[in-house]
Amino acid sequence: MAIRVAVVGLGGIGRNHVQIYADHPKTELVGVCDILPDRAKAASEQWQVPAFHDLDQMLADLRPDAVSVATAGVENGGDHFGPSMAALRAGAHVLCEKPLSNDLTEAKTLVHEARRLGRCLAVDLNHRFSPATAAAKSRQDGGDLGQLLFVRTYLWIGNRKESAPYFHLRALHSHSVDVMQYFGGPVSEVQAMFARGPRRQIWSNAVINLRFTGGALGQLLGSYDMGGTQDIEQTLLAGTGGELLISNATCDLTWRPHRGAEEVHIRHVGGQTSFGETMGRRLGRWLDQLAADADPREIEGSGLEALRAQAVVEAAIRSHETGGCAGAHRGCAGGCAGGLNRPLIGLRGRRSGTDWKGEKRASGL
Ligand SMILES: NC(=O)c1ccc[n+]([C@@H]2O[C@H](COP(=O)([O-])OP(=O)(O)OC[C@H]3O[C@@H](n4cnc5c(N)ncnc54)[C@H](O)[C@@H]3O)[C@@H](O)[C@H]2O)c1
């Protein structure tokens, strides 16, 4: 039986979701909703489904199996909480755009509520849903990398919006941190420096150092001042056995073992030629999992994983703001020299505010 899906929020991204659902063999697109009547009407006419201006009304009338939340708001996440919560409480599974919320407490509440209600909560963490990323993961799981030592990612896109000081961090980097944690596992410590690009008021550039609980080290470079038609994203995974490089905006993969001269470079892994294809793959995987009646804990790119990424972003913001050693994981000595270094924020530190054990206790996860 087809999965009955509705979409709330009909900007450019919501309309992408609508098109993907309309084209997908496992779904029936049942309705669209936007508080802006023109947007709802245009989508309704284009896809021949009922339009709503009020989400509660749509949920009551249509009782969809699943809802895509593609609203935006402050830092592109301020309008996600209300619609996601309403859809979950109406009994729907939810796929929310990133960030799950721009407010960590709201994001935690959503994860907790989805778990309590037994609903699937996914986030559009599409950057990890590329064939090159899957091929890298399979090499890692197969042991080619040996012990993982470094995860280094850059993600830069041009975005001239000046909406909030941490817009760049909160709106963009749940993607990059999610990819890094996908390979490196959970992050335990964070240290960050931010800078403003030319004529910018917001922190449009960032370097974030990470320690993963598995022992690897990570570095993320992020920017809203760069990017365009060139490669917007790369992830280097380096281990005792060799290096894997995901490049060309998640399309290509290079493998270089430490021993031997062989280098394998695959362009357009799995036929993916552009980054734009990741959204269809991500939503497709979500639909496959729903169709297979997946346990909510098995959902890939889940609300919990998005929350974990967001907690790292918030720790980076605190590291930048405090400019000294604050709540380090194992005391303030680790990596912090007399305030000259950036603060080292422990994700389990008492003063970090993102007590991950507390998180798990609070959410029951
Ligand atoms: N995954 C990706 O690759 C990717 C890329 C870009 C943007 N995004 C995300 O997609 C989301 C949407 O981005 P956009 O550019 O389409 O935003 P947008 O502002 O153009 O559209 C959002 C729409 O939501 C509507 N809306 C807000 N609150 C509503 C409510 N309570 N009920 C009904 N409608 C409501 C607004 O009227 C608006 O039409 C953002 O969260 C952004 O972070 C994701």
Concise synopsis of the structure shown:
The protein has 365 residues and is of the alpha/beta class. It has two domains: 3-119, NAD(P)-binding Rossmann-like Domain (Rossmann fold); 130-274 and 301-365, Dihydrodipicolinate Reductase, domain 2 (2-Layer Sandwich).
Describe the protein in words.
There is one protein chain. The protein is globular. It has helices at 12-23, 37-47, 55-62, 81-89, 104-117, 131-141, 167-184, 277-291, 303-322, 356-363, and strands at residues 3-8, 27-33, 51-52, 66-69, 93-96, 121-123, 148-156, 187-195, 205-212, 217-223, 233-239, 242-247, 252-257, 264-266, 344-346. α5 packs antiparallel against α9 (303-322) and α7 packs across α9. The protein has 2 domains: 3-119, Rossmann fold, CATH 3.40.50.720; 130-274 and 301-365, Dihydrodipicolinate Reductase, domain 2 (2-Layer Sandwich). A 9-stranded mixed β-sheet has the order 14-13-12-11-7-10-9-8-15. The chain has a 6-stranded parallel β-sheet with strand order 3-2-1-4-5-6, sandwiched between helices. It has 10 helices and 15 strands. It has 365 residues and is α/β, with parallel strands linked by helices. Nicotinamide-adenine-dinucleotide (NAD) binds at residues 8-14, 33-36, 39, 55, 70-72, 76-77, 79, 82-83, 97-98, 124, 126, 171.
List the domain count as a whole number: 2
Uncertain runs with pLDDT below 50, 5 residues or more? 324-342, 349-365
What's the order of the H and E elements?
EHEHEHEHEHEHEHEEEEEEEHHEH
> What gap, in angstroms, lies between the N and C termini?
31 Å
The share of residues in helices is 25-40%
| Largest sheet properties | 9 strands, mixed
**Helix- and strand-based class?**
alpha/beta
CATH architecture of the largest domain: 2-Layer Sandwich
Strand order across the largest sheet? 14-13-12-11-7-10-9-8-15
